[in-house]
Write a structure and sequence with these properties.
Protein name: PH domain-containing protein
Strand content: 25-35%
CATH architecture: Roll
CATH class: Mainly Beta
CATH topology: PH-domain like
Order of helices and strands: HEEEEEEEHH
Helix content: 10-25%
Number of domains: 1
Strand order of the largest sheet: 4-3-2-1-7-6-5
Shape: globular
Organism: Zooxanthella nutricula
Number of helices: 3
CATH superfamily: Pleckstrin-homology domain (PH domain)/Phosphotyrosine-binding domain (PTB)
Structural class: alpha+beta
Distance between the termini: 31 Å
Length: 138
């Protein structure tokens, strides 16, 4: 079954430098050796997630996967659907992504938490994400 994590999806990444949400294409890709990488690119058609302009975060470097926009200051939260925001934390920095498509956000959060080192990142289930999303909508 194709999932946004495997096939890729359009997301918005928060630019810490410019303080704006920028549209990107993101997916899980093979990295060096047998390592998996979460990659994103400004090419929204997904052709360059393996090219020079693509950015990558090795899944083994994840220290935390979080969901929800409340981790960001109020003026930097997504324009809508804050429950579709997710953060990826590594040793050196954090990255925040947002998509208006609930199932895409769910796939990224659950999939990346399952692939990350279990000794560091607790696994987040679909039920956890759906419960959080339901509470936020109330």
């Amino acid at each position: 079954v194709p999932t946004p994590l495997r096939t890729g999806a359009a997301v918005h990444k928060f630019s810490a430098k410019r303080k704006v949400w920028q549209e990107r294409f993101a997916c899980l890709a093979d990295g060096k050796g047998a390592q998996k990488e979460f990659r994103w690119s400004s090419d929204l058609k997904g052709r360059s997630v393996v090219g020079r302009g693509a950015r990558a975060l090795a899944v083994r470097d994840l220290t935390r996967v979080s969901f929800g926009g409340e981790l960001l200051p109020a003026d930097r939260r997504p324009p809508s659907h804050p429950w579709c925001c997710f953060g990826l934390w590594a040793h050196h920095r954090s990255y925040f992504f947002w998509t208006p498509v609930e199932l895409d956000a769910e796939a990224f959060v659950v999939g990346l938490s399952m692939l990350a080192p279990s000794s560091v990142v607790p696994t987040i289930s679909r039920q956890d994400v759906r419960l959080y999303r339901g509470r936020q909508k109330l």
